[in-house]
Amino acid sequence: MRRDRRTYFIRRIQAGWNRFYVRRFIAPAFDALGDHADITSPRDIEIWGAGITAGANLHLHAARGNLTRLATWRTGEREGRIEIGDNVLISPGTHIVASERIVIGSNTMIASGCYISDSDWHDTYDRTAELEKHRPIVIGENVWLGVRAIICKGVTIGENSIIGAGAVVTSNIPANCIAAGNPARVVRELDPTRDFRTRAELFRDPGKLDRDMDMLMRYMLRENTTLGWLRSVFAPTRTD
After folding, report:
1. Are residue 21 and residue 70 in the same domain, yes or no?
2. CA triple 220-224-226, angle to 5 deg
3. What's the CA gap between 223 and 240, in Å, rounded?
4. In this structure, what CATH number is given to the domain that contains residue 61?
5. Which of 59, 61, 122, 134 is catalytic?
6. Exposure check for the chain: N or C terminus, fewer CB within 10 A?
7. Are residues 40 and 110 both part of a single domain?
8. Strand 74-75 versus strand 78-79 pairing type
9. Is residue 59 annotated as part of the catalytic site, yes or no?
């Protein structure tokens, strides 16, 4: 498709169905979920296991054929936990899997296809057991993980830092820097004296944000018709 052919009315119906699906099937899977969560393609999101919490304004996105997964596992008396702060963005295809504890600070942005796991899941010599191959992960506030970044067990990433696309983070990354590579290394320092404008700015007035997004959707779909949408579904042309 080259453009969204749906009418505003159809978009509203689909958005209402998504909200129902989230309330019925996604939200109850969290131990706690803050207000104003924005969850897209919820049938492509898997929330598995206990101990998963998220703060306000969570943006949790998936896409058709691009599953997003938050999962915790119980091993004996130990149960994994995932703790997500406020205003966090999690993009399609990201998998976050906890055997012990994963903490994601407020205002963090996680790009598509990232993998965050606090365990190797198998011992080096005993491939049938995890044994002690697990350590908690802490991702500080306002961190930005690039596309397909991998965050390994025992890692702490300091606030405001950026992890480059495809990086494999096997050791701690300090605050206020950019790290890239495999294994990830610091390639640039950020200026900690400069102000960072975080995702929290987007949500100072959630009502206004909702109204602005609704007006934008009305504008973008203003020329669409029901007949045109049906044609694009059942007999699309090069213009669709």
Report:
1. no
2. 140
3. 13
4. 2.160.10.10
5. 122
6. N
7. yes
8. antiparallel
9. no
Quote the CA–CA distance of 146 and 91 in Å, as a whole number. 10
Query: Which residue type occupies 37?
Result: A
Q: Which residue has the tokens 């044609």?
A: 231
Spatial separation of the C-alpha atoms in residues 205 and 209, rounded to whole Å: 6
Domain that holds residue 174: 32-200
Instruction: Supply the pLDDT for residue 97.
Output: 98
Tell me the backbone φ, ψ of residue 116, rounded to 5 degrees: -125, 115
Q: 160, 173 in Cβ contact below 8 A?
A: no
pLDDT at 1: 65
| 65, 166: one domain | yes
> pLDDT tens per residue, the chain (240 residues)?
678 899 999 999 999 999 999 999 999 999 999 999 999 999 999 999 999 999 999 999 999 989 999 999 998 889 999 999 999 999 999 999 999 999 999 999 999 999 999 999 998 999 988 888 999 999 999 999 999 999 999 999 999 999 999 999 999 999 999 999 999 999 999 998 999 999 999 999 888 888 999 999 999 999 999 999 999 889 988 887
Q: Indicate if 109 and 176 belong to the same structural domain.
A: yes
Region label for 70, one of left (φ > 0), alpha (ψ between -120 and 50) or beta (otherwise): beta
For 102, phi and psi rounded to 5 degrees? -125, 125
Task: Identify whether the C-beta of residue 5 lies closer than 8 Å to the C-beta of residue 230.
Answer: no
Whether residue 172 sits in one domain with residue 69: yes
Question: 68-72 and 74-75: which strand pairing?
Answer: unpaired
CA gyration radius, the chain: 20
Measuring CA to CA, which residue among 97, 167, 186 is closest to residue 137? 97
